[in-house]
Input
Amino acid sequence: GAGVSQSPSNKVTEKGKDVELRCDPISGHTALYWYRQSLGQGLEFLIYFQGNSAPDKSGLPSDRFSAERTGGSVSTLTIQRTQQEDSAVYLCASSPGTGAQAKNIQYFGAGTRLSVL
Amino acid sequence: KQEVTQIPAALSVPEGENLVLNCSFTDSAIYNLQWFRQDPGKGLTSLLLIQSSQREQTSGRLNASLDKSSGRSTLYIAASQPGDSATYLCAVSSNTGKLIFGQGTTLQVKP
Output
């Protein structure tokens, strides 16, 4: 497809389990962003990638959260030992570039709804 | 630390009304400001992007203004329709493209 694809669309897990969330950005987009949307907290930035490197990880809430990007394309957000407060919608966005190209619009996926029981 | 505030949090209007959504931000050092629309259970759709050097952008019935020095933006929706019902999010961008979002305004347009 032409848009940002995220999988799974819904994930229910038990407290303490690890989960992996996947994002397929728009082909050719070098910048990729992860955000989290939870009740009471709104939409929060987690991490951004330029190519395969992550210059800004400042939004990751704890060391249980990690993300990687391979081949300048697909990204995976991993949450270890999930807690109930991790329940949220995790959104991914991609953009053609940053820096002087920071003017570019970000295109969002539909998100992964994570429920931790 | 950049903070973005949107008022009102919710708004209900009859069809056909013109309306204004407000957004304010604390740090004027932004690269751009975007207005997004979010429908329940869906991702975000970008409506308008205003570069830091611009004052306004228009798309159809939507007009967004930016006053960077005072840290304010407004989204004007003309002749509202029931299909405009959604949550509208304002976000400011840093030099990396990282977006800082407001809490959103949930709009209901009644037929």
Observations:
- The two ends of chain B are 41 Å apart (CA to CA).
- Residues 34 and 49 of chain B are 4 Å apart (CA to CA).
- DSSP finds no helices and eleven strands in chain B.
- The mean pLDDT of chain B is 94.
